[in-house]
Amino acid sequence: MAVAIASTSTYSQDNRTTMPITAPASIATGDLLVLIAATGGGATVVTPPAGWTEYTSLLSPQSGSIPSMTAKIFYKYAVLADETESTYTVTCTTGTCIGATIYRITGNQTSGVPFLHFENAVTSVVADGSYSETSLTLARTAPSHVMILFGFGSNVDATFNLSSSNYSVTSSDSNPTWTEIIDATNVFSSGSRGGWTASAHATSTNTSSITALGFDYTGSTSDATVVFGFLYISEPVDETGTNALHEASPALFTNAGVEVGGTGTIEVMEASPEFFTQSGRATSPTQWTNEAKPSTNWVNEQK
Q: How is residue 176 annotated by DSSP?
């Protein structure tokens, strides 16, 4: 079964400490769920819902008057309860939630860390630029895989407004078709901070190594801290290699038999019998016998 993005969900609204993200549609037990979330305001704690595992954390340094920001990637393999889940809530401790995306992926492995490769960049940007990672050698080990490119930005200017485009990976194959699921700015009603969230994905069957990746961005901003990232999720493949088998020499026993077509003797086991003594009784006492007969004849008396 080919790995595929089955459904997605995004969040980018005016909210400071929590992000209630609608669950992706049609979650089934065993699906891979990937959550990418970010916060600004110098916070370094992004807490996922219960049951999610943190894969990695991206922290951008402070840039001038722009505080640092944090983006984190979480994943989980869906259980029965996820099939009826309506909302996943992310908490951004002491900071400002910027945005989030959730991907539901099918055809993936069902245990262990699901990402084969991850690249990221953290930088300070101005309007009209690009995120680019070059001189890469990212091996693609399976003919079916999905790739995710994403970015988050934070700015104290209420006019903050970035927009991304031209997502790409470079390999021996042509750039695949990308589907963008979010490219939005989130300016808080207080006007004290703005956030940018972007994410796109592509499916490919090419197995050549990726040598570069990135996308462009344009917009109105004087300065911002930005986090970019790339995820690669592959269809499971059978392991290759050899098995080390145990070798044992058999023990051969000599059998004294007759050779086929020849003559010989068969040795049989010889055993001497053992006689057991019975505890019986002889005749006792001596058997009774008649006394000896008188030597004279008996004569009747006359009347």
A: P
**Tokens 């340094």 label which residue?**
61
235-284, pLDDT tens digit by residue? 886 666 666 666 767 666 665 555 556 565 555 566 677 766 766 555 55
pLDDT at 226: 86
Q: Count each helix (H run) and each strand (E run) in the chain, helices first.
A: 0, 16
Mean pLDDT check: name the lowest of 31-35, 108-112, 142-146, 221-225: 221-225
What pLDDT shows up at residue 269? 61
Evaluate whether 186 touches 101 at the Cβ level (below 8 Å): no
d(CA 144, CA 6): 14
Host domain of residue 207: 4-234
Q: What is the pLDDT, as a whole number, of residue 6? A: 96
- The verdict on residue 253 lying in a domain is no
Distance of CA 170 to the CA centre of its chain: 28
Q: How far is CA 287 from CA 169, 279, 283, in A?
A: 122, 21, 7
Structural domain contains residue 191: yes
> Residues 193, 41: contact at Cβ < 8 Å?
yes
Query: How many structural domains comprise the chain?
Result: 1
Distance between CA 154 and CA 64 in Å, rounded? 12
Dihedral (Cα; 21, 26, 29, 33), 10-degree rounding: -40
Predicted pLDDT at 217: 87
Strand segments, DSSP code E, in the chain are 4-11, 18-22, 32-40, 46-47, 53-60, 69-77, 87-92, 96-106, 115-125, 129-133, 145-155, 161-170, 178-187, 194-204, 212-220, 224-234
Query: Does 266 map to a domain?
Result: no
